[in-house]
Specification:
Helix content is about 60%, strand content about 10%. The protein is α+β, with helices and mostly antiparallel strands. Helix 1 runs antiparallel to helix 5, helix 1 crosses helix 6 and helix 4 runs antiparallel to helix 5. The protein starts with a helix and ends in a 9-residue tail after the last helix.
């Protein structure tokens, strides 16, 4: 099992446990809101996770730090953080938060669609694109936008295990592969070169 696989497995186990506990306590929305807060803290304060995963800081120091920063969270979320720290799983916190979000989205009937473009969309474009995809799929959609200039143009849409690659880079790659396959089929070698 690779490190990425371990991370996904750990995140899945912990996120499911947190979701089930929050459901039993009827505080799913509150916990989701606090997960979003944690995500924002991680994004803004990269040093926080560095401290939490570093062996240079004692467990007592880490626990004290969490008490200072997160004492205002509800008891379930706070104890959850203490637990993942105690079991040295803090390095997976971002993945756990993402898994928790995915579980919440699935329970609320949303489908997550990833859209990759060369540049960012403004709010109106993002809303219109999200509505168009939701109408085409006849589902509630959460659109996650990725910006990758390397695709050159066009778009890549990913939903579950399905992917539509209509990027310029993807189309060029398929065209070159098609030409190379045709050359092999016709027995032409070293005649077609590309960079």
């Amino acid at each position: 099992m690779t490190r990425a696989d371990v991370g996904l497995h750990v995140a899945d186990v912990y996120a499911k446990a947190l979701y089930e506990l929050s459901e039993q306590s009827k505080i799913v929305e509150e916990v989701k809101s606090e997960m979003e807060l944690l995500e924002a803290i991680i994004a803004q304060e990269s040093g926080f996770l560095n401290i939490m995963v570093s062996p240079q800081f004692s467990s007592d120091y880490k626990q004290s730090l969490m008490h200072k920063i997160f004492a205002g969270l509800n008891e379930l979320t706070f104890n959850f953080l203490l637990t993942i720290d105690k079991h040295n799983r803090m390095m997976f916190l971002s993945q756990i938060i993402n898994c928790f979000d995915e579980i919440w989205e699935a329970h609320h009937g949303f489908s997550v669609v990833e859209l990759t473009l060369t540049e960012n969309l403004n709010e109106d474009e993002l809303r219109n694109t999200s509505e168009a995809i939701a109408n085409a799929m006849r589902k509630k959609v959460i659109l996650k936008l990725n910006v990758k200039p390397s695709i050159v143009g066009g778009a890549v849409i990913k939903y579950g295990d399905s992917m539509i690659d209509n990027s310029v880079k993807g189309r060029l790659h398929r065209a070159v592969r098609s030409i190379m396959d045709k050359c092999k089929e016709l027995g032409i070698r070293n005649e077609v070169q590309y960079q």
